[in-house]
Amino acid sequence: MKETREEARFIGRPAKVVQMEPAMVVEWPRTFIHRHTYGKLTPFFKGLQEGRLLATRCKNPKCPENRLWLPARADCPDCLQPMAWEEIPQPVIGTIYTYTRVAYGGMGLEISEPYWQIDVELEGVCTIFKGWLKYGEPKIGMKVRAQFQDVPTNTILNIYWVPHDG
Amino acid sequence: MIVMKEGNKRIPKWNRKVFAVAGGLTDYRKWFPEYKLEELVMLAFRQMLEQNDLKMDPLEVKGLINYAVYGHFADHFQDQLLCSAKVHDYLGLDPLYNVGIKTGGATGGSAVLTGAMAVASGYADVVLVAGWERMDEVDTRTGNTYISFAACKDYETRLARMYSAYYAPMAKRFMETYNLSEETRAKVAVKNHLYACSSPYAQQPGRYTVEEVLNSRIAAWPLRFLECCAMSVGAASMLLCDEKTAWRLTDRPCELYIAGGSHTLRVADRRHQAIPLLPHETEEMYRDLLEPGSRYPGFESFLASRMAAWFCYRMAGIENPLEDLDLVELHDAFTISDIQTYGDIGLRPYGQEPDYIESGDAYYINPNTGKPGKCPSNLSGGLIGTMHAVGATGIFQGVECLWQVQQKYDKFHGDPKIWEFWGKTKPDDWQSLQIPDRKGCQAAWVSHAGVGSHVTLGILRKAWQ
């Protein structure tokens, strides 16, 4: 009677050899998907989907920081208490604090380059919010207005800024 | 934390003295297929043991090691988790304990700090500190994206996927606030590329003019490619020990002080606060610096660098860095981060940082006077001229300081055999950048992570007469 046996087989693809001299180098493809949680920042990113900008404020009356936080954070670093969400009234008008023109972004960049990356000060906010300018040329002190993607990106890129002329 | 309370301000103190006695480097290259990572670390380790004039046989020195600290920035660059275990075994140090350190660009400095803590506490008498990075497994754009994973992934990473775009807005703000010209920034690049020409380890040596830097390709305006650090493959190592062992091993030990500071990863989150003053500063100096509504540290300065200096100067008894230090090695990841640091560590008062370059104090030979610069910076070529194999960088800078204080710059940079070992030819016009010897000679180096999230400042002081 013929003996049957199960054999383990190589089922991958041979690694592509890039070079053999001065040392053997092979290509090692990597493609992974991460599932990233926005956790307690979910109201912020849900707000962006809905065309609203939400920030957080500490409600602890004893806390030394009572201004808004944007980038929002769910817990206050000064008194360690949970913060509350507040929508910034529309239209959201900010002032350019500084900026750069990105000419050479990294792999996977989702904005067509070159483009202006801007840092925006908002009244009543203790931090400075980083974003991108859809058109126009920035200057420090220039007023800009927040807008939102029609088709949500579900990321921070859902919000962008345009020059605010008045 | 904005208001530091009593315990937060405690000055670090060693329970016993800590010394650095030897160092080792590799060549640094953009593409380095000739060696695997652990093989490169072995080369740095062997240079440290074999070429530093130690008074014991290399294997006897290896036999003194009690503990090892390894710095590597990003697992995904090497595509190898727990790389330190692999390296440790390759160096033949099993079954001694080792620990891996990751604090971004400050990884090397943090590794030295961690090793020093082990000696100071008595956990170990002799500590190997080694670091590395292998950044050539992916192309440059992918490498930039990997590095940008050190930015906040919720709010910032997607806005550029490249770190120069997180420093460039700081450059714009600094230029506007403190009257920094493009030419002054370019001079930093010219200087550091030039000093790299004297180093057999350098990846990006070059004799550029200011005009060539300003005409080079833009990465993120206003920063040009020639103002940006190298992306490197390579390793570095340093040997730390207690006082008794230091004198057993060398006649030229250097006493080590090192401390660190941290600040928010997101520049956006820097709220205004009072300026922590260094020993030589007064509140009066900064009375008119900030206009109403301005911020400190804002986008102009690095609070983490200021705190590292704040702690380390007091730990080491430094009263005025420009007067007391003979050399600084700064983390010139970009020209602007180099310039920002001049104020943070007190080489100039805040607001006057460009003068450190324009005065000529930052040069080996002051171009204005033809005499030695008062406190030259980055004679190693720095990150712009020589290397930024991230996990190795803060160790490389410390080793360069060590060799300078030990009066061994020429031995480790001028020996044609070292150039030949790395397949290079020592230039006919090679220039020694050795700093002068003096009693108490000392050098400082700054190791710095993404927009100043972690920073260490280390000082190496000549311990022999």
Considering residues with a beta carbon less than 8 A from a beta carbon on another chain, report the largest interface and each chain's count.
A-B, 43 and 49 residues
The run of helices and strands of chain A is EEHEEEEEEEE
Q: How would the global form of chain B be characterised? A: globular
Tell me the strand percentage band of chain B: 15-25%
- Tally of DSSP helical segments of chain A: 1
- Provide mean pLDDT of chain B, rounded: 96
- Topology, number of strands of chain B: 11
Task: Determine the number of helices of chain B (DSSP H or I, runs of at least 4 residues).
Answer: 18
How would you describe the overall organization of this protein?
The complex is a heterodimer of chains A (166) and B (465). Chain A is mainly β and 166 residues long. Chain A is built from one helix and ten strands. In chain A, the strands form three sheets. A five-stranded antiparallel β-sheet of chain A has the order 8-7-6-9-10, with no helix packed on it. In chain A, strands 4-3-5 form a three-stranded antiparallel β-sheet. A two-stranded antiparallel ribbon of chain A has the order 1-2. Chain B contains 18 helices and eleven strands. Chain B is globular and about 60 Å long. At the A-B interface, strand 6, strand 7 and strand 8 of A face helix 6, helix 7 and strand 5 of B.
